Amino acid sequence: MKFRKATKKDLPTIIEMIADDPLGKTRERFQTPLPMEYLKAFKQIDADQNQELIVLENEDSEIIGTLQLTFIQYLTYRGGIRAQIEAVRVRKDQRGLGIGKAMFTWAIERSKERNAHLLQLTTDKKRPKAINFYKELGFIDSHEGMKIHFK
User: Could you tell me the domains of the chain?
Assistant: First the structure.
């Protein structure tokens, strides 16, 4: 398996994976051609040194997973850096094979390389299997997250 930075060419595959779950189906628009919003967002992510959109390829160079890491500079923790992991997806036919665990292991090591003092995530409470998976990886639910949606 090979982790690499995503390219514009990878975008349809990434969006297809993000849209391929019950919650993703309600908020994403995977279609050909992709809506321009995705292309605009990719351009901004790609240009930001604190954003890493990553794909995981198998031995046949097929994309089987994706994740996004964001490195956030804080004043707290003596000017520490937090890593935020989002949009972790494994291709449907590859789930249950340990790929998610390998992706998180890679993300933890990458966060350490970038001198982050922690790796954090949010997950929807409607994803109990994901929550259990994160706990098995060593994540703890130490804070209560809150959001306000504008649209």
Answer: 2-136 (3.40.630.30)
